[in-house]
Amino acid sequence: ITVCMATFNGEKYIEEQIISILSQLNDYDELIISDDGSTDSTVEIIKKIDDKRINLVFNKNDRGYSSNFYNAMSMATGDYIFLSDQDDIWLEDKVTITLKYLKSFDFVVSDAFVVDSNLNLLEESRFKTFNISNGFLPNFIRTRYIGCCMAFNRKVLDALYPFPEKKYNIPHDLWITLISEKYYKTSLIDNQLIKYRRHDNNVSNGGLTVKNNKR
């Protein structure tokens, strides 16, 4: 397994999220964290965790949320790729349930509890709130998938190359969704596998744009 995380000024929640991920990984799995030039203590917190499964890298490409994710994904060595935001919480059965689905499907998207900054419940099911369905056409018109709920196998990752140039402004999760729905076997996972934190500081993108249209 490779978990790809993009960080930018995430000091408030990053440690809690990393711990929730590492607790589910085996010794030979990896967590690749690509930092987009954080100016707070994000990098120091990551280094302090001092776990050999963490590979901290720095985005030297065009800065931005999707570019930062592409940087992490380009270094992935695992057979299965999970995406992660810096401020959510993985529930304890996320990896186990997701891997069961990935035995039969190439690309999966799980449901999520939506919570506030203090983990108070805002929405019981993101799938129900946004009436999410799989398939190419509904997601081409307006995708409701979000990267932090995605996982996919190696052949999907290989099909994503070359990643879209930044000038086209194609979000990474939209690109992954369209390639997967067009060419691969996909499934929704009706279990809520993360606590998806929605708050006023949902920034990524190296300060270039704000990710707080947390959808």
From TrEMBL:
<dbReference type="InterPro" id="IPR001173">
    <property type="entry name" value="Glyco_trans_2-like"/>
</dbReference>
<dbReference type="InterPro" id="IPR029044">
    <property type="entry name" value="Nucleotide-diphossugar_trans"/>
</dbReference>
<dbReference type="GO" id="GO:0016758">
    <property type="term" value="F:hexosyltransferase activity"/>
</dbReference>
<protein>
    <submittedName>
        <fullName>CpsK</fullName>
    </submittedName>
</protein>
<dbReference type="Pfam" id="PF00535">
    <property type="entry name" value="Glycos_transf_2"/>
</dbReference>
<feature type="domain" description="Glycosyltransferase 2-like">
    <location>
        <begin position="2"/>
        <end position="159"/>
    </location>
</feature>
